[in-house]
Write a structure and sequence with these properties.
This protein has 530 residues and is α+β, with helices and mostly antiparallel strands. It has 19 helices and 23 strands.
Length: 530
């Protein structure tokens, strides 16, 4: 098939395409082009035989959710030939450049290879085989190293899977991993096989990263016990490689709890606590932590005892969950674990009431934050709060269970009116007590509106939780703290103390004291560092 030239126009149904550039110089293969649709929108144009074109449609149909694969816009197939119009990679992507690839951050490059492997796995799962992925079949984003398939000129269907077929498709992963990590040219398959069999030569070459050598050995040849036989094995190798490179997030914690003005409060019915643990899972170090605030209900006997007991029980339940399930399970589903911890702590409180009903009629609010690896989840009941400070944004991760919140939801009060209505603010609609066990569905995770605020899908939000990033600050407060500041004041206090979580806690609690706060004031702050 003859190649089209740059600048040449091509009519595709009702669309007018202008060829920007050919992505292959080989006219004998199925050519691929970067084109403009109309005057502005970039797209890919693939051409080839009718058989090849039908295989492309079968392979890429409904592939919208697979990162790194183009999406089919339109197709013309028949009379022995095929033309297929597909979405182009992002505007920031450009043809693969090996020099720029060698300078991509290592953790980013491994993540990019992993996403590319997932895309290739989707192709294999649909019976398609690339018969070798070449570098000129790829575009890349230099800043992040993200890789995109822009051509599949040799795509075919294979009747049965073979190790040789898998190897032809995945050997490029070994080449790219080597060039990024070693920052020099890939030596070739035969030379690399010889190198991997000579410990002294490996040491001299600086080839001493276990994850890298595992990937190289799996991709360099289809023969031997170490060769990858499918995409799943390649993904496991890349996961091990990534685990060795990723540094665990560090967490610094501050906490404070004050009585408030003696005129209004003669005891502190607030409590707070946290537990942090480290675990090494495979080659990956995971840091996990649980942080919580409870506010004993002043109008119920033994609120001070209830808040202390719920915090101690929750921290104990977290440690038991970590011991029994492991850090990786906590990271996979942080919200169900956080809510489960709250449920176990509530059961402990109810048992206290059962064993000593005459002296225990305590009640308390409870808000908890679970951070495991790079994910976070919350549990919440009452009017204590958990907030995420990310950059200049202060994002509420919980919603108050109060009469004021109900009246706002019903349209009976505006938010401004609710702030002035002290009775509705201080009347809570849910709490934990020694009298009754709270039903699991009444222990909240993240509010549904959070997904839109963070640009996430609501599906899975209360399972997988939210991503934790370096620089994030999580702030947990009792109502005696957050009822004494407005948003501009909070932002000022954070800006002045963002690098020290203990100073931030002292500043927020101190502000409540300066205003002669009428309630106990408790603050826990967690600063996430890379």
């Amino acid at each position: 098939m003859a190649l089209l030239s740059a600048g040449q126009e091509f009519v595709f149904g009702e669309r007018r395409l202008t060829i920007q550039r050919a992505l292959h110089d080989d006219a004998s293969s199925s050519p691929s082009y970067l084109v403009l649709v109309g005057d502005a929108k970039a797209a890919l144009l693939w051409q080839g035989s009718e058989t090849w074109g039908r295989r492309v449609l079968e392979t890429l149909s409904n592939a919208e959710e697979i990162a790194g694969l183009p999406r089919i816009i339109d197709s013309q197939i028949g009379n022995g030939s095929a033309s297929i119009l597909l979405t182009a990679p992002p505007a920031s992507a450009e043809p693969f450049d090996v020099w720029k690839w060698r300078h991509v951050q290592r953790t980013s490059s491994v993540e990019s290879l992993r996403r590319l492997a997932l895309a290739m796995g989707a192709i294999h799962a649909r019976g398609g085989w690339l018969q070798g992925l070449r570098r000129h079949d790829l575009f890349m984003t230099p800043s992040s190293g993200a890789l995109f398939m822009v051509a599949m000129p040799r795509l075919a269907a294979l009747d049965r899977e073979s190790v040789e077929a898998v190897w032809r498709d995945i050997r490029v992963f070994g080449e790219l991993a080597f060039e990024n990590f070693m920052e020099r040219e890939y030596p070739g398959g035969h030379q690399l096989v010889a190198l991997l069999q000579d410990r002294a030569a490996m040491a001299e070459a600086g080839l001493n990263a276990p994850g890298l050598t595992q990937v190289l050995a799996g991709c360099v040849t289809p023969y031997g016990d170490l060769a990858y036989t499918n995409i799943a094995e390649l993904l496991r190798g890349l996961d091990h490689f990534r685990a060795e490179l990723v540094r665990p997030l560090n967490m610094r914690v501050g906490s404070t709890s004050t009585l408030g003005s003696y005129i209004f409060r003669q005891n502190n019915q607030d409590a707070c606590g946290h537990v942090m643990l480290d675990a090494i899972c495979g080659s990956r170090k995971l840091r996990v932590g649980f942080f919580c605030v409870a506010d004993g209900i002043g109008g119920i006997q033994d609120g001070e005892h209830a808040s202390r007991m719920i915090v101690e029980s929750a921290c104990t339940a977290f440690a038991r969950a970590w011991s029994f399930y492991g850090a990786e399970r906590l990271e996979q589903t942080p919200v169900p674990f956080a809510r489960g911890i709250a449920r176990v702590a509530c059961q402990r409180l109810v048992l206290e009431g059962e064993f000593d009903p005459g002296n225990n009629r305590g009640g308390t609010t409870f808000s908890g934050l679970l951070i495991a690896g790079g994910r976070a989840g919350v549990c919440h009941i009452g009017d204590s709060r958990v907030m995420l400070v990310r950059g200049d944004e202060c994002i509420a991760l919980t919603e108050d269970h109060s009469l004021a919140a109900i009246l706002i939801q019903l349209g009976e009060l505006t938010a401004e009116e609710a702030e002035r209505n002290e009775a509705s603010q201080r009347t809570i609609s849910r709490f934990m007590s020694t009298a009754n066990e709270v039903e699991c569905e009444r222990i909240d995770g993240f509010p549904a509106r959070l997904a839109e605020r963070l640009g996430l899908r609501s599906f899975g939000l209360n399972t997988a939780g939210i991503e934790v990033r370096p620089g994030d600050i999580f702030v947990l407060t009792s109502d005696g703290a957050h009822n004494e500041y407005d948003l501009p004041t909070l932002r000022r206090l954070i800006a002045q103390n963002s690098g020290d979580p203990q100073k931030l806690c002292d500043a927020i609690a101190g502000h409540a004291l300066e205003r002669i706060g009428r309630d106990n004031s408790t603050v826990v702050a967690v600063l996430v560092e890379g």
